[in-house]
Specification:
Layout lengths: L2 H8 L13 E5 L3 E5 L1 H4 L12 H4 L5 H13 L3 H9 L4 H7 L21 E3 L3 E2 L6 E2 L4 E2 L3 E2 L6 E6 L2 E6 L3 E3 L1
Antiparallel strand pairs: 1-2, 3-6, 3-10, 4-5, 7-8, 8-9
Helix pairs in contact: 4-6
The structure holds zinc ion (ZN).
Zinc ion binds next to helix 2.
């Protein structure tokens, strides 16, 4: 979907708050893109009350928007957010994704399931993007984190630098 098509769907405004500040498409895997303004794209809203816009957006008839709202509410550590999320009536497409936490399963090169906090070993030399560094084969990466929404990516620290690593190039220790 192009940004133009997205903007037609959204009526030319942010699908969370209805604002129009620097609108852009954001991919919400696996349900597709949503249009968000600069404030809603950021991790932090300009004002604490900003996310209250989600109470209205929760009723969107677009599965991707509803799922994006659901996830954002989950990331907010506030009572109203939990209540709003609990009260949401999810579209069937969204319910299916929410009910399938295993949809994103991170597996190493041998197909072994990885969990956050695991230690993995690199099975080949990996150039680190944007640097001249090469993470050497055999390097142990401790306490990995899993990249949500992307089963092929994990993150870990190599030589003090936090990098994204493809799961196909690691082996669980
Ligand atoms: Zn917005």
């Amino acid at each position: 979907m192009t940004l133009d098509e997205l903007l037609t769907r959204s009526g030319g405004v942010c699908e969370f708050c209805g604002g129009d500040l620097r609108l852009g498409g954001v991919e919400v895997a696996p349900l597709g893109p949503v249009v968000l303004c600069a404030v809603c794209r950021g991790d932090r809203a300009d004002s604490a009350g900003h996310w209250r816009c989600l109470e209205g957006a929760a009723w969107s008839a677009v599965p991707a928007v509803q799922y994006a709202v659901w996830r954002r509410l989950r990331s907010l550590d506030e009572a109203w957010a939990t209540e709003t999320r609990d009260a949401m009536i999810l579209l069937p497409e969204v319910q299916a994704v929410v009910d399938a936490p295993d949809a994103v399963e991170h597996r190493d090169s041998n197909g072994v399931v990885l969990a956050a906090g695991d230690t993995v070993v690199l099975i080949k030399d990996l150039p680190v993007k944007g640097t001249s560094m090469v993470a050497k084969r055999g390097t142990a990466v401790r306490s990995i984190t899993l990249v949500a929404d992307n089963a092929a990516h994990i993150e870990g620290r190599v030589d003090g630098q936090r990098i994204v690593i493809l799961t196909e190039f690691v082996k669980k220790k």
